[in-house]
Amino acid sequence: MQEAGRRHFVDTAPFDPATGPAHGHDAATDTASAWRLIARKFLRHRLAVASLIILAAMYATIPVVEFLAPYEQNKRHGDMLYAPPQAVHLFHEGAFRGPFVYPYRAHFDLESFQRSYIADTSAPQPLRFLCRGEPYHYFGLIAGDRHLLCPPEGGSLFLLGTDKLGRDLLSRIIYGARISLVIGLAGVAISFVLGLFFGGIAGYFGGLTDAAVQRLIEIVRSVPELPLWLALSAALPPNWSPLAIFFGITLILGLLDWPGLARAVRSKLLALREEDFVAAAELMGASPRHVIQRHLIPNFMSHLIASATLAIPTMILGETALSFLGLGLRPPVTSWGVLLNEAQNLAAVQLYPWLLLPTVPVLVTVLAYNFLGDGLRDAADPYH
Amino acid sequence: MTPLLSIRDLTIDFRTDRQNFRALDGLSLDVAPGRTLALVGESGSGKSVTAQAILRILPRSATITAGRILFAEPEQPGTVREITALPADGPQMRELRGGRIAMIFQEPMTCLSPLHTIGDQVGEALRVHTGASRADADAQTRDALARVGFPDPERALHTYPFELSGGLRQRAMIAMALIMRPALLVADEPTTALDVTTQAQILALLGRLQAETGMSILLITHDLGVVANMAHDVAVLYRGRLVEAGSREDVLRRPGHPYLRALIKAVPRFDMAPGERLTPITPARVTIPQRPPPVLRPGPILSVAGVSKVFALRSAKASGEAGLIRAVTDVSLAVKAGQTLGLVGESGSGKTTLSKMVMRAVVPSAGRILFDAGAGPRNVHALSGADLFAYRRAVQFVFQDPYSSLDPRMTVGELLGEPMRIHGIPKRERQQRTRDLMAMVGLDPGGLSRYPHAFSGGQRQRIGIARALALEPRVLLLDEPVSALDVSVQAQILNLLKDLQAALGLTYLIVSHNLAVIDYMADTISVMCRGRIVEAAPKATLFRNPAHPYTRALLAAVPDPSLDHPLDFAAVSGEHSDPTAWPEPFRLTAAESGAMREIEAGHEVRMGGTEALRAA
């Protein structure tokens, strides 16, 4: 064995250099465009795909909140203030009865001045599905009264409890999703446009323009965020309609969030300009417009979408924080932040902890966006 | 004698989420004490994976599926450690790594931490393994730096990597690897990133250190010239399999495997007969459409007249002269239509800046670049509008890196069509022409709908060449056209370029650091050093009778794959790119730039001012 290194060994297996190198590609990969490769790589990121499904489901509720929510968002139940969540049961006295609830009986303790609710376990009230309930108007236009889930005849259905005016929290969370989810997208759309513009001119023209944009970014970034939000939203005239306030808040969030995206655009542009294929196009005599349209934008768009996705949670949290402080959206508009505004009172939280439940959808949304953004970022460059 | 390191039936698999891939398939080899085993192979052959397996630093996606790696402890005879059985991060493996087995890498810059001094980094292994005190470690580090040829080891202790040249950084890496006096040095392409003269010095250093310490070297390389000059034993890998192994004499003089035989024939050599063609391992089948030969005018089609480029460092703009970098100084060249001019130089010689000025990507500080499209020479940098557009069409560029020069988001058809689209060629004609172009570079027109990632490096470079030919240019500028490619593919690309030139009457300006490539391609050669042309001559003259000391040093430093022309390591130990150190009459003081003197027909050499005065 010791002479193995010295002996002249020649492999006798047949040698055929013409069989292509072990590239391992199939024909489908060879002709797959970058977006197809990105999609493929993204689909392998399980957490991101799961997040995408969750988010898609959440956004799918937006056009049909009236149908999904058992109650209208402002429907008050004067006799059911601060009612705790009602449990759904399946078996009554050992027998299967389908989903039902026990009716609440309100009891007011005149000594402690506390309201308590006792479930009357003798009279199960079955839930109704796809039933006719309170009338509503889709988008304020089409009249309807079908609901996915209705309270029992003559009973109540407060799966997540009620607030101080006796409004169903679940319904309000479902309605609130409409505002909270849209505000993130709308805000990012604004900051996307701004970021693309400022990052684009900084990265493409360089020099003085770049320096000016950089300084502007630094100034915007160095302003403490929360006080500025507060100041700006306090400046919104109180007599504006809730819709105008909504757009105002979106604008404020978008205007303050673009620096991150602008930086991403700029650095990606600078990196791409160093690539030989950009130089190649320029040496062919291509105009700047051609270079930007054919080479720069297609190559950084996927990265930009990933960055934008990661910016959405900031928007949602921003809206939630502002509304929580009472400076964002105001009732009667419902958003998750507005709902949490009611949980400001420590005593209320202690006695009625279900008022904090609107944090759960915020948490889920923000986490899902972060995972989704991570997955997109990993997939954005499919050639690595 | 028992081997120091034995690898038996080593099989390594890579598992990625898309595919599984066998990187090594039943590799067996031995490294004998005190000898150098060269592991030869191209990219994807598994040679670097072998090195990583020996040090157990394989990437996470790799698993050692079968086989053993045995290391015979040199200090305790009879003790054999089974490296493959040790936990990769365990204390025993850590003790071996850096202590008994050390490694040096290809890229010396990225392997040194920019935040720590050379002294800190070289001494680190010592302090980790022996717990030596600071003063002790410094003393030993100083010795180590002196041994690897640092001119002032005391000062080197306190310098940072960015202050050192590439060669000195690689020396520092070697000092770091050798400070624990390892029994085995694994050197993964240690000189690939270096200039030829620096490469020769580092190879000489490795040889000397081996003689002094008696260590074994596992030298991983793709360069048969390095193998011929360094190895005692040779093992050849091809796609994860060992195809040939034996002593250097056996393997290089009597190559048995068809792959190695083909590889040897595919490397350009200096002793090739005029007109001899390289034989690529897989020849490209090209169909070049017959065109009437273009009318070649007698004068130069492209000429560079007294061009200089001075870059001002931003930090020193205020302080004036001190911050100026003279990238190119008073360079003049002329290329005749249908011919090839080769521009040779090491890194920093200004050859790339010059080619960028020809492409109008950089504006010269002085001088003119003249292009003669048939209506008399015109200054390229004064062109504008339609004339500039026409120039862009007539002069095309082939990039060095076939990966970054093709936009990954375009199909090959779009890539080849892009220049024609920019220049307003109608769609129908574009489609026909892209098919012709694919055939011209020997690719299947069916590949037009594929994306660049479907092609290998050599195929991508052919796509790059096809794109450059799309507009039927007169001149091609080739910037290191094969340096990013495997040896077996290089021959294919070089032959393709030659065939295209012959068929289409193209003019080439080829820029390279590889003298053998320039020798194979060029008709006339200019040698650049520190921004100046130091020697210019027709190919045959230059290689037969090099006059300038820098040219001679370059030629002497190229390792030849033939065993009959060993490197003269003694001849390359000096500093050859310093004009003040050149012997008379070539010496140039810092202030003077000398002048080109013709020493025989067409053969010009730059000489210093003293000589110029005497001649005048």
Automatic annotation (TrEMBL), chain A:
Entry membrane topology: Multi-pass membrane protein
The protein's name in its UniProt record: ABC transporter permease
One GO term (biological process): transmembrane transport
Organism, as annotated: Methylobacterium planeticum
Annotated spans, Disordered: 1-27
Family: Belongs to the binding-protein-dependent transport system permease family.
Source species, domain of life: Bacteria
Cellular component GO terms, alphabetical: plasma membrane
Biased composition (Basic and acidic residues): 1-10
Pfam families noted in UniProt: BPD_transp_1, OppC_N
InterPro entries (UniProt xref): MetI-like, MetI-like_sf, OppC_N
Domain spans labelled ABC transmembrane type-1: 177-373
Compartments where located: Cell membrane
Lineage: Bacteria, Pseudomonadati, Pseudomonadota, Alphaproteobacteria, Hyphomicrobiales
Keywords noted in UniProt: Membrane, Transmembrane, Transmembrane helix, Transport
CDD domains: TM_PBP2
Positions of transmembrane segments: 47-69, 179-205, 240-258, 304-329, 349-372
Primary location recorded for the protein, binned into one broad class: membrane
UniProtKB/TrEMBL annotation, chain B:
Residue ranges of domain ABC transporter in the record: 7-264, 302-555
Subcellular location: Cell inner membrane
Major site of localization recorded for this protein: membrane
Record keywords: ATP-binding, Nucleotide-binding, Transport
GO BP: peptide transport; transmembrane transport
Membrane association type: Peripheral membrane protein
Gene Ontology CC annotation, any one: plasma membrane
Name of a matching Pfam family: oligo_HPY
UniProt xrefs under InterPro entries: AAA+_ATPase, ABC_transp_ATP-bind, ABC_transporter-like_ATP-bd, ABC_transporter-like_CS, Oligopep_ABC_C, P-loop_NTPase
MF terms in GO: ATP binding; ATP hydrolysis activity
CDD domains associated with the record: ABC_NikE_OppD_transporters
Record Gene3D superfamilies: P-loop containing nucleotide triphosphate hydrolases
Family to which the UniProt record says this protein belongs: Belongs to the ABC transporter superfamily.
NCBIfam families the UniProt entry points to: PRK11308.1 (NF008453)
PANTHER family linked: D,D-DIPEPTIDE TRANSPORT ATP-BINDING PROTEIN DDPF-RELATED, TRANSPORT ATP-BINDING PROTEIN
Name of the protein: ABC transporter ATP-binding protein
